[in-house]
Design goal:
By secondary structure, the protein is an alpha+beta fold. It contains 15 helices and 6 strands. The strands form 2 sheets. A 4-stranded antiparallel sheet has the order 2-5-1-6, with helices on one face. The radius of gyration is 39 Å and the shape is flat. The N terminus is likely disordered. It comes from Fraxinus pennsylvanica. It is found in: Membrane. This is V-type proton ATPase subunit a. InterPro entries: V-ATPase_116kDa_su.
Length: about 400
């Protein structure tokens, strides 16, 4: 806090004077007051309950609700991406976000989403019947109903992923040693089938497996579960099959009309959410903190760099270049290879015993030296290098290796 009038007015040189204030607000209007002050962008709030955990604070339930609401907003974004929609950049900016209204919208959308998913699942459960009307697979079964009953053959019907169909057939053949009869047909639809478990659109095949024996039945059921196949019961009686086909066709027409209305309603609801999404999804303009992953070799160099200034978020780290430039500049100024050898031997001692010394309590000077052992070692190596170059130059000046090319002028 700075007192007003203490410094002359200097708009660019110094920041604006600040005043520490304390507001006493009724509990009922606290949210709207703080929201309005936050929208102004002229206040910095001090946390007076820093020693308390999140669960001990007054607004712990509201903070938890904000976290849950963030998860629901991510769900809204995923649904809009699936429908090919994007949040509107021209959403209306209200004075504040009403969490209660957002919660009601979320509950309404979840109920609509679950209802649509249930209808899709029911539609997929009956898709086998629709495909059986013109399918030669069932026609063959109808023609051979009596022989099947006499031989007491069982069968399993359902849907399996198209990319798994070849492996599914191979595993069934090996598990039953070829004592099965498998038929598969591709489900020909405008859109892929929606998997009732994952909810994703998947291309599937209709399969019928005919077998005999209870052991084969248990093996086939386990293999179907392992491949994520959706099994649907189908009766052996021919009359019941026709009755089931008629009922399924009627249900499919009803479900198709219901799903079309539901999808239209979902698209309208997602468009409304997309228009308000940017307002609900509050973003901060503060940059994330800077963190560089270091080890025992680069930590001392990074501390030297941070002493002069910390790079911005995801800005190029000058510590990478300082690993070489800092010891080299020191060696240019120092340039003594004899003292460099002494420093190098001392740092070798610290490095060879670093595991033991790291567990001991060292003094201030010794701890600082031990922490920068790798930096000192690099400085010593560069000092030896530059010192040898300097001494070699002085030593070569004593010898006239090529003679003198200077000639006087008469």
């Amino acid at each position: 806090m700075a007192d007003e009038g203490c410094w002359p007015a200097m708009d660019l040189l110094r920041s604006e004077p600040m005043q520490l204030v304390q507001l006493i607000i009724p509990f009922e209007s606290a949210y709207r007051t703080i929201s309005y002050l936050g929208d102004l962008g002229l206040f910095q709030f001090n946390d007076l309950n820093a020693e308390k955990s999140l669960f001990q604070r007054t607004y712990a339930a509201q903070i938890k609700g904000c976290g849950e609401m963030a998860c629901k907003l991510r769900f809204f974004r995923d649904q809009m991406i699936k429908e090919g929609l994007s949040p509107s950049s021209t959403s209306s900016a209200g004075p504040y976000v009403d969490l209660d209204e957002l919660e009601k919208a979320s509950q309404f959308f979840h109920s609509a989403q679950s209802s649509a998913a249930a209808q899709h699942k029911e539609s997929e459960a009956h898709i086998l019947g629709e495909g059986s009307v013109d399918s030669p697979l069932l026609l063959e079964q109808e023609m051979s109903t009596e022989p099947l009953n006499q031989m007491k053959l069982g069968f399993v019907s359902g849907l399996v992923g198209r990319e798994k169909s070849v492996a599914f057939e191979r595993i069934l053949f090996r598990a039953t040693r070829g004592n099965i009869f498998l038929r598969q047909l591709q489900v020909v639809m405008e859109d892929p089938v929606i998997d009732p478990v994952s909810g994703d659109k998947v291309e599937k095949n209709v399969f019928f497996v005919f077998y005999s024996g209870e052991r084969a039945d248990s093996k086939i059921l386990k293999i179907c579960d392992a491949f994520g196949a959706n099994r649907y019961p189908f009766t052996d009686d021919l009359g019941k099959q026709y009755l089931m086909i008629t009922e399924v066709l009627g249900k499919l027409s009803e479900l198709k009309a219901t799903i079309d209305v539901g999808q239209l309603h979902q698209a309208n609801l997602l468009q409304t959410i997309g228009y308000e999404f940017e307002q609900w999804n509050l973003l901060t303009k503060e940059s994330p903190p800077t963190y560089f992953r270091t080890n025992k070799f680069t930590s001392a160099i990074q501390e030297i760099v941070d002493a002069y200034g910390v790079a911005k978020y995801q800005e190029a780290n000058p510590g990478v270049f300082t690993i070489i430039t800092f010891p080299f500049l020191f060696a240019v100024m120092f340039g003594d290879w004899g003292h460099g050898i002494c420093l190098f031997l001392a740092t070798l001692y610290f490095i060879s015993r670093e595991k033991k010394l790291s567990r001991q309590k060292l003094g201030d000077i010794m701890e600082m030296t031990f922490g920068g052992r790798y930096v000192i070692m690099m400085m010593a190596l560069f000092s030896i290098y530059t010192g040898l170059i300097w001494k070699l130059r002085l030593w070569l000046q004593r010898f006239n290796l090529q003679g003198c090319f200077y000639s006087g002028i008469n």
